[in-house]
Amino acid sequence: MRIYSVTDTGGVGPLLVREVISAVAKKGIRKTYVDLEAFKIRFPEEGVFVAIEHLGLAQNEYLMDDYPESY
């Protein structure tokens, strides 16, 4: 995850945190909470952009074959 500031025109600005913030989503959970307290981020009044990258590794692949056709 990367956190960017917002420019005056509403676009993506510079990074607020230089290091990559990593988190692991639990299997089957739709919401993931990440503790950002250690990064001491000062959130600007204009807001932030949060970019999330998913690791497309074969070991992370999960096939859901047991769901009904309605999903």
What's a concise summary of this model?
With 71 residues, this protein is an all-beta fold.
Structure write-up:
The chain is an all-beta fold and 71 residues long. The chain has one domain (1-71). It is 0% helix and 18% strand. The chain is built from no helices and 3 strands. It has a 3-stranded antiparallel sheet, with no helix packed on it.
Compute the number of strand runs. 3
Shape: elongated
Based on CA atoms alone, the radius of gyration comes out at 16 Å
Widest β-sheet, arrangement of strands: 2-1-3
Low-confidence stretches: none
Biggest sheet character: 3 strands, antiparallel
Mean of the pLDDT scores? 82
Number of DSSP helical runs: 0
Beta-strand content: 15-25%
Termini Cα gap: 28 Å
Helix content: under 10%
Global structural class: mainly beta
In total, the number of domains comes to: 1
**Helix and strand pattern:** EEE
Chain-wise SSE layout:
Elements: E1 2-6, E2 12-15, E3 48-51
Antiparallel strand pairs: 1-2, 1-3
